[in-house]
Batch of 3 targets.
Target 1
Amino acid sequence: MLAPFAHCSWCFVWLLDLAGNCPSSWSLTGFDVSTAQFPHAAYLPSNVSLKRFDAFERVILELVEAFDVTHLRALCVVVKGGNPSVLIENVAKMLKPDGYIQWDDFDPDTFITYSPSLSISKTSSDEIIKTWANYAKQLNLHFEYGDPPPPVKKPNTAHLMSSTGGSQPSPSLLKEAGISTLQTQRFSYPSSKLRKAATDNWVMALEETMFVILNRGGEEGEKERFRNLLAETVEDTKAGVRMWIDFLSVIGRKTGL
């Protein structure tokens, strides 16, 4: 059995794509904290099921050692306090002995903008990411943008980064949960030919997440300021400004009994 955890609807595309490329005897179960973005059951293959589950809560008995493989994706924006230990420990509990974990995620600290010409301003695009990062900190989500990294970098959300600021995911947190790291990889996302489409997606994601944050208690006038900043950012991207980010992938295996 395979269990993917996701934080956004497009992550379920991965699960449905896998379902079309694996034996029908495989049982695939997708989890999310909310059912709001689940596809209708009529669109799911017979071997795919979707369930609500908060991966930071206690693992219920029926999920303990129930899965051969777990796949995590796009959880970096929900791990608070820069510490994914609880999440990792819960996923380890759900794995059978000798089971595998694959975690693919963005590294928000590497979120950058690019202008193809000095004559094309990216000021608004830079500012909207800084604004997003600053408000995220109010929710105990710690991302850095625009400043040089500190000499010692804390383990940051779902990155599994080493505490010495290394460029590869660290196996330390996985090891504490009884998981041996088999492979790590960092690469720039997306490829150059997809950066326009990816930039459009990032702008929409920033819009959605910022208004969620502001609706929870933004200062007076901040919504209007953000709307104006968003409109300016869209104009930046029309002129050629692009956004991209590093992507991290780690594969591990739970130590057998």
Target 2
Amino acid sequence: MKKINWDAPVKDSQAVNPYMETLVKETLTLHKVLSKFLPEMTINMIMDPVFNSYREQLGKGFLDVEVKTSAGKSRIGRMVHDIEYLQSRMGKLEGSAGFSQHLLSVVQTKLVAKEAEKTPSSVEPKITPGAVVEKPSEEPPKGSS
């Protein structure tokens, strides 16, 4: 993921990135092979750590992705598309739904941060030159003891 240039234009915005295609393909192959030889409980014991690792590693990877241009920031949707692909292909595997939802929330956090950059901060008041700013009184209001 670090090698992907998220700022570069893409030919097909709906195309899934190769890293996600490979991850999904290899995971489905692993699950298919395990299913042929092992009971379901054992498969779940193997796949749970795999999905937890995906959750941690991909989540960290998505958080660490830096986009430097406004075009790149608008392409955060590519990340969402990758996660939706992962969810559509692996969503039926037991234990996979939780980590894909986590990844979506990580990317949504990036989208919220991107939107916050566009709007001016409403926390800091605008002060015009020459304006008098009164400091709030530290005395308790009259009539209260």
Target 3
Amino acid sequence: MSEQLRNCKLTINSIVSIATLYSSIRHTHITEEIKKTISTKQTEIEGAVTIADKQLIGLDNKLEELHLSSDGQDASESTESKAEVLQQLEEERKARSASRKVLDELLSKSKEEAIAKAAAENQSHSTT
């Protein structure tokens, strides 16, 4: 009888070890998928931030050119038209700056979400 108990105990220990190994492998696979998804999202957001930065630089250059060209121009040219263009560029610059700020916040939130998701996955796998 004790031989049967020992065999049963060995079988149960083997099953538990296999289940633990399977859970660990599965957990690693899910973690890698999460990391890949997060990395992809962050890369996309960082690309959008780079584009926004370039657009802001372009707007700054246009504004500077308009300011310089309006300083050296005759009074006969339409100052109203230039003022309108300057105002539009300033508004576009403000919008781009706000967009850049939102992208920065989105990037920060995606990192926070990634950490929370990974922690939740860790906890759910440690209880199974």
